[in-house]
Design goal:
single chain; 558 residues; alpha/beta; Diaminopimelate Epimerase, Chain A, domain 1; TIM Barrel; 6-stranded mixed β-sheet
């Protein structure tokens, strides 16, 4: 999963405000009359009214008088609008989201039948498609809360293969045509780290969990370079419209990596991408041996490897120390063996690559922390800023280990408000004490970095900001917030989406804030997020998005 690029920056120049001896510049761009916010290099919130840009980078920030130092620069009146650094989404899946935007979206539908009917309508509109693919189903929202079946899809479309990934990406739903093409029968064994869901007769129902999904994925024709490029372009425009100027792509394929490198080197990347090469690529050793992949414009960077410990909570694939409360004896799934994990850590750290570890369950997180600790004792690598992606369910004893091991909790605020309708059913109230625990991490001094995990969640960062501050859905429920004691302040969550997200990618000297010398990546908003009621934060609209001092998106709204 993977994609894109571009830039931002800031700092307050008191000498300029007082009228220093600096000769007025005759080039560049000055945006004045703005309500500007940014974090300085010490992660402190600062305000400014004027932003000066040259060669795509921040030259200075300050009050209204700063503009006087640049009499010949192009001037833009910000009309008092709120300006903040461009958002960095620290965990998404670029290509997957791009493909999702080009496929059928069954998110939020009220039943398996409704999803099947939408898929059939989509297929009828696209007769040239060989495979019908989509994403977003969630049985938790359905009346019976049961996994769907191939038969439901077969009744609507049986002549073409259908493959629909669950909203969390850790389960797939196939029709009988797909099962046949994949060779999945009653005799097919579930692979290690995966599960073929079966009916009472032992026959596959059409739902495959985690590593079992590979049985289908391996027979789907890979996307062409043209399809990857189209997905990237589609996704880039979507993210820019949401104010996202940089994204961390959690699981880049080898083909995507090579194509992204080419696109970035040609100067055609539209959004900044920090890639995590997927450890499942067959040529992963070759990629690591090639070293970091970077460019002078910071459009595409690859210096991190994504490894996978467990599955997801919604599909009961998250690895738990104790059995699931709603499935007796089931502990979830470990999708990578301990020997494989240790080998990957060794190779990645030796190649000077950051390790980003997918871990959701408390057992998954413990294994991840144990492997980091072992790696430090054997090959080192503490300076690489290793991350645990999701850090979702963690025991109270393991939370302090994130700080002592310098492991970054890379978390997604909307997961809490999306999962609150089923999390207690899955693991019980006691284990929720270490779940979605942003405040606990922050209080011990950990830097929480935020993303959305799109397309599992919507990419809109203001939905995440709202969820982090209120612990509520868009209907302001629950009234007091779900596990409200773990909420973040607005300042903290905005920092986690900007300067701290850049730091988690070793990019804090170039991205994440509007200080001198950083890329001038920023967005203009329709409201001052620091002045509105927290309940309305999710309604914030992006008016303009700028990268490297150039406008790349402008809202068509009045």
């Amino acid at each position: 999963m993977a994609k894109f690029n571009w830039f931002a920056a800031f700092t307050i120049i008191i000498t300029a405000l007082a009228g220093c001896s600096k000769q007025p510049d005759t080039t560049g761009l000055v945006i004045e009359n703005i309500n500007g916010y940014t974090f300085d290099n010490d992660r402190q919130l600062q305000q400014f009214q004027t932003l000066a840009i040259e060669d795509g980078k921040v030259l200075a920030t300050g009050n209204a008088e700063l503009a006087l130092n640049y009499p010949n620069a192009e001037k833009i009146d910000g009309q008092g609008k709120t300006l903040i650094p461009g958002i960095t989404d620290a965990h998404g899946h670029v290509s997957t989201m791009g493909y999702t935007l080009l496929t059928v979206d069954v998110r939020g539908l009220e039943s398996a039948q409704a999803a099947a009917e939408l898929v059939a309508k989509y297929a009828a509109e696209k007769p040239a498609l060989g495979w019908i693919q989509g994403r977003g189903w969630n049985q938790v929202l359905w009346p019976d809360k049961q996994y769907p079946s191939a038969a439901v899809l077969d009744a609507q479309i049986s002549d073409r293969p259908v493959w629909l990934e669950r909203i969390d990406g850790h389960a797939g739903w196939a029709n009988s045509k797909t099962l046949a093409l994949a060779g999945i029968t009653g005799e097919t064994a579930s692979p290690p780290g995966g599960e073929i869901i079966r009916d009472s007769n032992g026959q596959p129902t059409g739902v495959l969990i985690d590593n079992a999904m590979h049985l289908v994925n391996r027979v789907i024709p890979p996307p062409s370079n043209d399809e990857i490029a189209l997905a990237l372009d589609t996704m880039s425009q979507h993210l820019l419209s949401l104010g996202i100027t940089s994204t961390h792509d959690a699981g880049v394929s080898s083909a995507e990596h090579k194509l992204y490198r080419q696109i970035a080197d040609n100067g055609d990347m539209r959004i900044r991408i920090y890639g995590m090469i997927s450890s499942t690529n067959v040529d992963i050793e070759e990629t690591l041996a090639a070293g970091h992949s970077v460019d002078a414009q910071d459009l595409y960077t690859l210096r991190s490897i994504k490894v996978y410990v467990d599955g997801a909570l919604g599909s009961r694939g998250a690895a738990m120390l104790e059995p699931y409360a709603d499935r007796a004896g089931h502990h979830g799934l470990l999708v990578t063996s301990s020997d494989q994990l240790r080998d990957l850590f060794n190779k990645a750290i030796t190649a000077d690559f950051q390790v980003a570890i997918h871990a959701i369950g408390d057992k998954g997180n413990r294994i991840a922390l144990d492997e980091v600790e072992y790696a430090y004792a054997t090959v080192g690598g503490r300076h690489l800023r290793h991350r645990i992606e999701h850090s979702q369910i963690v025991t109270l004893d393991d939370i302090p280990r994130f700080k002592s091991l310098d492991v970054i909790p890379s978390m997604q605020p909307t997961h809490a408000t999306s999962d609150m309708n089923m999390a207690e059913d899955r693991i019980g109230a006691e284990r929720l004490k270490g779940a979605y625990a942003w405040r606990s991490f922050l209080n011990q001094g950990s830097r929480v970095v935020s993303g959305s995990d799109y397309p599992i969640e919507l990419a809109n960062p203001f939905h995440g900001i709202h969820a982090a501050v209120t612990r509520q859905n868009h209907d302001n429920m629950p009234a007091e917030g779900w596990i409200a004691e773990e909420a973040m302040t607005l300042k903290e969550v905005l920092r986690s989406f900007t300067i701290d997200a850049a730091w988690a990618a070793h990019q804090e000297d170039r991205l994440g804030g509007l200080t001198v010398g950083k890329w001038a990546d920023f967005i203009l908003l329709d409201q001052d997020v620091f002045q509105v009621e927290p309940e309305t934060l999710w309604q914030t609209q992006v008016l303009e998005t700028w990268m490297a001092g150039k406008r790349v998106y402008q809202s068509k709204a009045p």
